[in-house]
Structures are given as C-alpha cells and as structure tokens.
Design brief:
The complex is a heterodimer of chains A (227) and B (194). Chain A is 76% helix and 0% strand. Chain A has nine helices and no strands. In chain A, helix 5 runs antiparallel to helix 6 and helix 5 packs antiparallel against helix 8. By secondary structure, chain B is mainly alpha-helical. Chain B has eight helices and no strands. The longest helix of chain B is centred in the middle third of the chain and has 21 residues. The C terminus of chain B is likely disordered. Classes of the chains: A mainly alpha (227), B mainly alpha (194). At the A-B interface, helix 1 and helix 9 of A face helix 2, helix 3 and helix 4 of B.
Chain lengths: 227, 194
C-alpha cells in the first residue's frame, strides 16, 4: 500500500484520474514497421513494371531484384529503428545513430559500384533532365511511406522527433529507390550517386522536418495549456 | 534477486496495471519513481519549487506516454528520458519567451507622473489585469519596456503585425476599461524601430 504522505499532489492526481482510461501498449517497433510492408512491395515493383525494366539480363537476378529487396529490408529496419527511437528511454546512442545513418549510404554506394561494373551504361546526354526525373520519381514515390512512418513515430512519444523522423524518412527513401533503380537504365555512378542518392536523402530531411514540426506544435500546445 | 532487481520487477508489474487504468498503481509508481526523477531534475535545476513543477510535468507526460511502455523493458529509463525531455522543453520555452511566465503582480507598472496617486495606480493595475494575457504582455513589453514589435514577435512566436495588433487592441481595451477620464498608458520608450 502507498503511504498517503507519498501520494501525488491533489491537482496531479485529479488530472491523472480524469483521463485514466486503459491503454493498449504499443507493439514492438519491428512489428509496427510491418505496416509499411505493402507500400514497400508496391514501391519495389511499381516503377519497373509500370514503366520498363533496365537491363536485367546483363545485371543478373542478385544485382537487380536481390539488391532492391535488400534495400527494402534495410529501409524497413531503419523505420523500425525510427519507431524504437520514438519510445522514451529507448533512444539510440550517437554511435548507433551514426551507423544507422551511414548504412544506407554505404549500401547505395556498394550497389551502384557493383551495378556499374556488371553493366556500365553511361548517360549519353541530358543528364540534368534524366537526373531530375530520377530524383523526382524516387522522392515523390517515397512521400506516402514517409508520411506513414512519421505518423507511426508520432503515435509514440518521440523526445528527439527530428532524429526519429529523419530515420523514418531515410528508410522510406531507400525503399522508394529500391524500385526506381530497377527502372532507371543508367548505372553511371555520377548519375546514381547524385540523383538517386538525393532521392534517398531528401525524404530523410523531409521526415525530420515534418516530424519535428508536428511534435513541436503539439508540445507548444501542451506547454501553453500547463502554464 | 537483488533489491534493485526486485524493485524493477515490481515497477514493471505496476506499470502494466497503470496501463490497465488502475489509480492505485499510479500512486505506487509515483511514490517509487519520484525520488530518482527529482534527483535527476535537481542536478539540473537549482530552484526546489521548479523541480517540483518539472517533476509533476514529468508525471503528466508519462501519463500521456504510458502506452509506449513495453513491459519487457525497465521503467526507470522511460521516466528519466521523459524528465529530461520536460526539462529541455521548459528550457526552450523559457528562452523563447523569458518574460511570459512572470506573474503580472511583479511587473512594474508605470503610470504618468500626474497620475501617481495610489488610487490611479490601482486602477491601472486592475485594468491591466483585466486584459487578455497576450494583449497585456504585448502592451507592456512595447509601451512600458520599450521592446520593438520585432522583438515582441520573436519572443511570442508570432508575426510582427500580430504583435502590433495585440498591443494596439490592448491599448484600446485599456482605454475603454479606464474610461475617458482615466490615466493614459505611459508613452512608449524609444526603440531601435524608431
């Protein structure tokens, strides 16, 4: 039993008692991130199927579908990491965060170099236009995944919303590029590491800004009501 | 099992009951978690009343975040993470509007020299207290302390035009509250905007 001298102040107790409805605990981050699996699968097949495939025969199954499936898996893991980051007390350490942010970049660079060595297709001309198309396509197709991942993160209680949103956006960007790279016919590293990588990084920035903004507004409302 | 481990197991069970909506579980969590939370906050904030205030806010935020707790994890990291967040949130709010939480009773309210009777001062004070807080703040910051509207806007987190509007509406309302014969608002000090 609790000694009455250790009870919370009356104001706090009444505020708690007023809203003391049972709540269902959030499921583990990895399970929650599975909500994005359908979007991931659509992103994986939509661009190559709707438009056209790149040189799959030359590239081979592992570098085409295998690498893209790996990108989807890493993207999902990054979103799960974002959902874990959004739970108070389970924030990632700086070292772990560095690894989390660096791993997709390393993956994109490795896949790009491997694809270039297996099937070198250089951009003949119009590299600004083609780069713009690849960036825009990848970025726009990432937006639904960024939005859903950010909503999932905000349903928890992110104490570092920009970090959680950034991880979620990075995961979404990686998932979107998984399909887009199968459609893009050019494997030139200069093209992939600018246009495609920007299509991965800009959703991360978008996720960070949007999540921080929404969370900050919610906190301001909470704080001003408590002042 | 060590006392600490037993305490951890007990807290996990209590948190599950709290998630199920049991007030007695909250009371016991409060009794057990308050000392470490207060210690954490006291290491960052010197003012004891502020520590109390932040500790209460921590429990309110814990209440909002109780659905995020996973019984597989210990409770204390969650409580301390929220306490840290509350402390940082309050620091941010204070730096954004450092004067916003100052009680109006402690604000120096200037009154024109020819209106320096006690009755007039009381009249001005009452009229100021009757203003909506946002208008009162904008009016005092501009007309009494001489802050520019740009500075007021930055402190209140609003646009410059909104700060002007709040101040002018505050003046109009103050005049109306004081009546035509009442003392005027003191002239504004010169600012960098002039």
């Amino acid at each position: 039993m609790t000694d009455s001298s250790h009870l919370a102040p009356a104001g706090l107790r009444s505020a708690i008692a007023r809203y003391l409805s049972p709540v269902r605990a959030l499921r583990p981050p990895l399970v929650r991130s599975m909500a994005l699996l359908p979007i991931g699968l659509v992103l994986l097949v939509a661009a190559p199927v709707v438009f056209s495939f790149r040189d799959l025969e030359t590239l081979g199954w592992p570098l085409a579908w295998g690498a893209s499936a790996l990108q989807i898996a890493i993207g999902m893991l990054l979103i799960a990491a974002a959902l874990r980051e959004a739970v108070p007390g389970r924030a990632w350490s700086p070292v772990a965060l560095t690894g989390l942010f660096a791993s997709p970049l390393a993956l994109v660079i490795a896949v790009t170099l491997a694809s270039w060595s297996a099937s070198p297709v250089a951009l003949p001309r119009l590299w600004w236009t083609i780069g713009g198309i690849c960036f825009a396509g990848s970025f726009i197709s990432a937006i639904p995944a960024v939005a859903l991942a950010a909503v999932l993160a905000l349903r928890a209680y992110p104490t570092r919303p920009a970090v959680a949103g950034g991880l979620a956006g990075l995961g979404a960007g990686l998932m979107a590029d998984a399909g887009w790279r199968l459609f893009c016919h050019y494997s030139e590293p200069a093209h992939v590491l600018t246009a495609h990588l920007a299509g991965v990084l800009v959703p991360a920035v978008l996720g960070a800004l949007a999540t921080a903004r929404v969370r900050r507004n919610a906190e301001r409302r909470t704080l001003s009501s408590s002042l | 099992m060590s006392a600490r481990a037993e305490d951890d197991v007990r807290l996990r069970a209590l948190m599950v009951r709290y998630q199920a909506g049991e007030m007695a579980a909250f009371d016991e969590i409060y009794a057990r978690v308050t000392p470490p939370v207060r210690r954490f906050l006291a290491s960052r904030v010197r003012d004891a009343s502020r520590v109390d205030d932040l500790a209460q806010e921590t429990f309110l935020q814990m209440h909002r975040a109780r659905h995020t707790y996973d019984p597989a994890d210990p409770l204390m990291p969650l409580a301390i993470a929220i306490a840290r967040h509350v402390w940082l949130m309050r620091l941010r709010a204070d730096s954004r509007r450092p004067l916003a939480v100052e009680p109006i009773e402690e604000l120096p309210i200037g009154v024109r020299a020819d209106a320096e009777s006690y009755a007039d001062r009381e009249q001005v004070r009452d009229a100021l207290l009757a203003l909506p807080p946002a208008r009162r703040r904008a009016l005092l910051w501009h007309h009494h302390w001489g802050l520019s509207f740009r500075e007021i806007a930055a402190r209140m987190g609003i646009r410059e035009t909104a700060a002007k509007l709040r101040s002018s509406r505050g003046v109009a309302q103050l005049r109306s509250l004081l009546g035509n014969d009442g003392p005027d608002v003191p002239p504004r000090r010169k600012t960098s905007d002039d």
